[in-house]
Amino acid sequence: MDNNNRRLNNDQLLQVLTLSKDATAIYTSENIVIEMANDAMINFWGKDRSIIGKTLEDAVPEFKGQPFVKMLRNVLLTGITDSGEAIPAETMINGNLRTSYYSYEYRAIKDDFGKPYCILHTASDVTEKVLGQKAIEFALLQKEALEREQSLNEELQEANSELENLNKILHLSKENLSQLNIELESRVARRTLELVNSEARIRNMLADAPVAIAVFSGRELRIESANKKILEAWGKTDNIIGKTLLEAVPELVDQDFNNILSQVYSSGEPYFGNEIKELIEKNGKIEEVYSNFIYQPLKDRERKINSIMLSANVITEQVKARKKVERAEEMLQFALEAGNIGTWRINTLTNELKSSPILKQIYGIDLVEDFNFEKILDLITEDCREKVSVDIKNAIESLGNCDISYTLKRPSDEQVVWVRSFGKMVKDEDGVINALSGVVMDITEQKQDEQRKNDFISMVSHELKTPITSISAYVQLLQAKSKNNSDDFASATLDKVQKQIRKMSTMISSFLNVSRLESGKIHLIKTDFDLEELLSEVVDECKLTDSVYKINFECCEAKIIHADRDKIGAVISNLMSNAIKYSEKGKTINVHSEIIDGLAHVSIEDEGIGIKEQHLDKLFDRYYRVNNQQTKTISGFGIGLYLSAEIVKRHNGKIWAESSFGEGSKFHFTIPLA
Question: Is 398 exposed, middle or buried (0-12, 13-18, 19+ CB in 10 A)?
Answer without folding.
Answer: exposed
